[in-house]
Write a structure and sequence with these properties.
The protein has 383 residues and is mainly β. The chain has 1 helix and 27 strands. Bound molecules: fe (ii) ion (FE2). Fe (ii) ion binds next to loops.
């Protein structure tokens, strides 16, 4: 979570009586991480946040693994994935393990009911389109290149101004900026590739004082539980704390370059338990007179590597298109394709834009990936 902020009306002291001008008491709710021992937000409701009208259906959602497929490098043309519906229903899971579920979604419908991920944080990378994430803590307008971070527990809806495409990561652990970018007291450090001023924070909205029936879908590991609440979930008069949705544009990531090829950790943008997320952005290449800008071949034997190619020319890959994903599993070496390693010598800059997800446990390939799999990719290194 970024840092402590306050929005709307809050009492001067936490856990004390807080009333409206008519004398009615507001109801405080604590949203907290690591039990009661991590970052937290105090929220002040018009009504009890626990007032249910009904417990609805449980809709089972089991992840489907592609069975009996060979272990090999993969290239998925995710622009062709069969996806439509709302921002939840349109998700097509492509890879997963116990730490992360990686999906692509091309929603074409507004999310009018309310949604809360009960057991995972969500990171939505906006490949294209525009819209608004509306939450109980405030709104965030998103545009292409934004990473939108939605911690578990936040209640949200979504609307679109343009057809929108997301790459989505749902993580078991919290999604944070890397520890090494942050001081002991929680400030982003001088060497970090972005700072607090680059973050987009929620735009607080006045509380909605309505009662009736409001459908909330809570995402759980095995499915989605529907609840009907007796008041509008966006009834906060104010809140204060460090748990809230936020966004960061990949275009505000300031690349770190060097005389020789810089390894992926210089591109790291987020961390979560069991994975890192990196941003490859337009930048000048290495300036040692004998440098080779393309990456060296590598066997990063403790991580599976997913790269989502957002746009631009990719110096080390042939046959890649916008929205391609390459998957290089930990059991094999990988690197530039024929001609690309030596061909990169003398190149001055790159305009590539890509998101990399390195997981520390092997990923499973989901069944939905099979329809968009480029079966020739493993042989693309053959000269
Ligand atoms: Fe790699």
């Amino acid at each position: 979570m970024p840092y402590y902020i306050e929005r709307g009306e809050i009492p001067p002291k936490r856990h004390t009586q807080f009333r409206n001008p008519a004398g009615d008491l507001h109801f405080e709710e604590l949203l907290s991480r690591k039990g009661f021992s991590g970052e937290h937000t105090n929220m002040y409701h018009l009504r009890m946040p626990t007032r249910l009208a009904a417990v609805g259906r449980f809709m089972e959602r089991q992840l489907q693994e592609a069975k009996g497929i060979p272990h090999r490098h993969r290239h998925l043309r995710t622009g062709k994935v069969n996806s439509s519906g709302g921002p939840i229903g349109s998700r097509q899971v492509l890879f997963y393990n116990d730490d992360v579920i990686i999906s692509k979604a091309h929603p074409d419908e507004t999310l009018n009911s309310f949604y809360r991920n009960g057991q995972a944080d969500e990171l939505l990378y906006v490949q294209s389109g525009k819209g608004t994430l509306a939450t109980n803590l405030g709104n965030i307008a998103f545009v292409p290149g934004d990473y939108v971070v939605i911690p578990r527990g936040v209640i949200w809806q979504m609307s679109f101004d343009e057809p929108t495409r997301f790459l989505i990561m749902e993580t078991r652990g919290s999604i944070d900026v890397p520890d090494r970018y942050v001081s002991d007291r929680g400030q982003l450090l001088e060497h970090a590739p972005f700072c607090e001023r680059d973050l987009k924070l929620p735009d607080f909205q006045a509380p909605i004082d309505e009662q009736g029936e409001y459908r909330l879908m809570v995402r759980l590991q095995g499915g989605i539980q529907e609840y009907i609440y007796a008041q509008h979930p966006f009834d906060l008069v104010g809140w204060a704390g460090q748990c809230y949705p936020w966004a960061f544009s990949i275009h505000d990531f300031e690349p770190i370059t060097g005389r020789i090829h810089q390894p992926p950790p210089v591109h790291q943008t987020f961390q979560a338990a069991g994975l890192v997320i990196c941003s490859f952005v337009p930048r000048l290449f290495d300036y040692h007179p004998q440098s080779i800008p393309a990456p060296y071949y590598h066997s990063n034997v403790d991580s599976d590597e997913i790269i989502f190619y957002s746009r631009g020319e990719f110096m080390s890959r042939k046959g890649i298109e916008d929205e391609s994903i390459t998957y290089h599993p930990m059991g094999l070496p990988h690197g530039p394709q024929p001609g690309m390693y030596e061909g990169s010598i003398g190149k001055q800059e790159t305009d590539e834009l890509a998101v990399m997800i390195d997981t520390f446990a092997p990923l499973k390939v989901a069944a939905a990936a099979m329809g968009i799999d480029d079966e020739h990719y493993p042989m693309s290194w053959s000269e």
